[in-house]
């Protein structure tokens, strides 16, 4: 006590009895805010304007890396204008190659301008989507119905769409709910007993060899172990083989396992294949399995009349993952999970402590009662903006156009003597490789050559197209998702790969 009393007052303590508003760095100075806001919009506008005229791939120079990673915490606060200048100089020049028109890597689209602005409003309002009674939550409820209508998912009083950080988180919610439902059906409660030493038959999940890595991560995270993910072989078009699924479920059951979920992929990440969803739904029904469809990338492909048939059965899913940050020009991050029976999710997740209240009968269902997270970002506004700006017809046009361009690219590849398709073109993904004529290269040499070409594409700054493996062979993988792409972009890509390929083999 003695030492406490003799401690000299800290500088801020002397000001404790004075109003703080006008000298605090966070204090709202409206004129300054408007001024900084205009500067920010100018920076953003410049960024958007220059996007496609800058190289597709911008590598952060070494001194910038060091500067950013070694940045010191300042003793005194920085000036707001200096902070914007810092971002302009040291951060904005080096984005990931995701928004460029000729960035065909991964599965990402640029942000719709209106979505960028709507997201600013969302962060300004700073209202999370966990629950309570507020406009953004109701908007999310309406937006959920948009997703269901677009994806052909049943809309009724029991269904619900919840926004997540992405497909991985949406898949984890689906698999968790599936697992808990299975235990409940067997007469026990995982939330109460947990999986440890349950002495019960091991739970198993089924998916094709082409399933996204996040599904394996889900099984690992749920404590089921990697071996609980039972891999079903795919056919020559990379689609799960229903006969093999049935056989594996049968033999696993006979061996004392407890199959509880089957995951169908509507648009595989690697090659865009669509699993035979209707046949899988039949098998799921027959064996009492939860039917989850992972359409993180491809669920919206159902809107393309040329592909709609292949989606038959998706409407029978218990849960459907769909990522607006992939095909819908929504700024990262945003994934959605469409839930057929929200009560199943509620049973798996709802836990309302004393210091929170529970959703009432008049409110929209609270996401926090159907998912792991409590407070979470208001992703509804930007997603609503990106979709609303297009309307249904615009979304159909976007998806169909990307698919047509991919087919056009595939056609150009097939007609080039020195290019070869490595998987059938499906949705907006094309996998191909450069094969110099008359060189007699084996697969290993072609793998190395195509990795080199992919690097050369990036170094040229003209496009971005990383490699993947298709049945063990290195492929140049182009995924078309940009609203502004044209046949000219596809021609450019073919010409670029052939030119860099010829240079690489010294012709
Ligand atoms: C991208 C993708 C995921 C993972 O989604 P994130 O948003 O990156 O978490 C899951 N499944 C499929 C089929 C995907 O393409």
What this model shows, in words?
It is a single chain. With 507 residues, the protein is α/β, with parallel strands linked by helices. The protein folds into three domains: 75 residues, dopa decarboxylase, N-terminal domain; 250 residues, Type I PLP-dependent aspartate aminotransferase-like (Major domain) (Aspartate Aminotransferase, domain 2), CATH 3.40.640.10; 113 residues, Aspartate Aminotransferase, domain 1 (Alpha-Beta Complex), CATH 3.90.1150.170. It has 16 helices and eleven strands. Helix 7 crosses helix 9, helix 7 crosses helix 13 and helix 15 crosses helix 16. The longest helix has 35 residues. The model has no long low-confidence stretch (mean pLDDT 94).
> Which sequence of SSEs, written as H and E, runs from N to C?
HHHHHHEHHEHEHEHEEHEHHEEHEEH
Query: How would you name the CATH homologous superfamily of the largest domain?
Result: Type I PLP-dependent aspartate aminotransferase-like (Major domain)
Number of domains as seen in the coordinates: 3
Ligands bound, unique: pyridoxal-5'-phosphate
Number of helices: 16
Q: What shape does the CA trace take? A: globular
Low-pLDDT ranges: none
Question: According to CATH, what is the topology of the largest domain?
Answer: Aspartate Aminotransferase, domain 2
**Roughly how many Å apart are the termini?**
84 Å
Q: Taking Cα atoms only, what radius of gyration do you get, to the nearest Å?
A: 26 Å
Question: For the record, what CATH class of the largest domain applies?
Answer: Alpha Beta
CATH architecture of the largest domain: 3-Layer(aba) Sandwich
Class derived from helix and strand content: alpha/beta
Residues in helices, as a percent range? 40-55%
Give the tally of β-strands. Answer: 11
Q: Can you give the mean pLDDT? A: 94
| Widest β-sheet, arrangement of strands | 1-7-6-5-4-2-3
Biggest sheet statistics: 7 strands, mixed
Roughly what fraction of the amino acids lie in strands? 5-15%
């Amino acid at each position: 006590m003695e030492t406490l009393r003799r401690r000299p007052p800290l500088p801020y303590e002397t000001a404790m009895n004075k109003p703080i508003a006008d000298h605090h760095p966070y204090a709202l100075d409206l004129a300054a805010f408007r001024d900084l806001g205009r500067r920010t919009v100018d920076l953003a506008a410049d960024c958007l304007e220059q996007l496609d005229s800058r190289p597709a791939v911008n590598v952060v120079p070494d001194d910038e890396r060091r500067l950013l990673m070694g940045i010191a915490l300042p003793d005194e606060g920085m000036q707001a204008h200096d902070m914007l200048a810092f971002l302009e100089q040291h951060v904005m020049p080096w984005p990931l190659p995701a928004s460029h028109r000729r960035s065909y890597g991964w599965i990402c689209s640029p942000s719709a301008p209106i979505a960028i602005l709507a997201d600013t409003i969302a962060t300004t309002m700073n209202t999370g989507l966990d629950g309570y009674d507020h406009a953004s939550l109701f908007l999310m409820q309406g937006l959920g119905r948009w997703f269901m209508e677009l994806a052909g998912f049943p809309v009724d009083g029991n269904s619900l769409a919840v926004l997540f950080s992405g497909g991985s988180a949406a898949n984890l919610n689906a698999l968790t709910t599936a697992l808990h439902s299975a235990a409940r059906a067997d007469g026990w409660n995982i939330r109460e007993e947990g999986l440890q030493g349950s002495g019960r038959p091991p739970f198993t999940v089924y998916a094709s060899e082409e399933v996204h890595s996040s599904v394996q991560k889900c099984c690992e995270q749920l404590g089921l172990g990697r071996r609980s993910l039972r891999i079903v072989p795919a056919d020559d078009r990379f689609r799960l083989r229903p006969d093999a699924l049935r056989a594996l479920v049968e033999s696993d059951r006979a061996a004392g396992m407890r199959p509880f979920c089957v995951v169908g992929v509507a648009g595989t990440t690697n090659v865009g294949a669509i699993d035979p969803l209707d046949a899988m739904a039949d098998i799921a029904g027959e064996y009492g399995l939860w039917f989850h469809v992972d359409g993180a990338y491809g669920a919206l492909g159902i809107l393309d009349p040329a592909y709609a048939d292949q989606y038959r059965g998706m409407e029978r899913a218990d849960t459907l993952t769909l990522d607006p940050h992939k095909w819908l020009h929504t700024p990262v991050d945003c994934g959605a999970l469409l839930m057929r029976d929200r009560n199943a999710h509620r049973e798996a997740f709802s836990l309302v402590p004393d210091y929170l209240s529970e959703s009432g009968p008049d409110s929209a269902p609270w996401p926090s009662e159907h998912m792991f997270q409590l407070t979470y970002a208001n992703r509804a506004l930007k997603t609503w903006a990106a979709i609303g700006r297009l309307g249904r017809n615009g979304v159909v046009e976007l998806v169909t156009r990307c698919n047509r361009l991919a087919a056009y690219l595939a056609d150009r590849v097939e007609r080039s003597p020195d290019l070869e398709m490595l998987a059938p073109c499906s949705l907006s993904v094309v996998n191909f490789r450069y094969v110099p004529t008359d060189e007699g290269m084996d697969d290993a040499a072609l793998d190395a050559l195509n990795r080199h070409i992919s690097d050369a594409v990036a170094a040229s700054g003209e496009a971005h197209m990383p490699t993947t493996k298709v049945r063990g062979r290195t492929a140049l993988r182009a995924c078309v998702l940009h609203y502004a792409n044209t046949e000219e972009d596809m021609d450019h890509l073919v010409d670029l790969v052939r030119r860099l390929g010829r240079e690489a083999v010294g012709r």
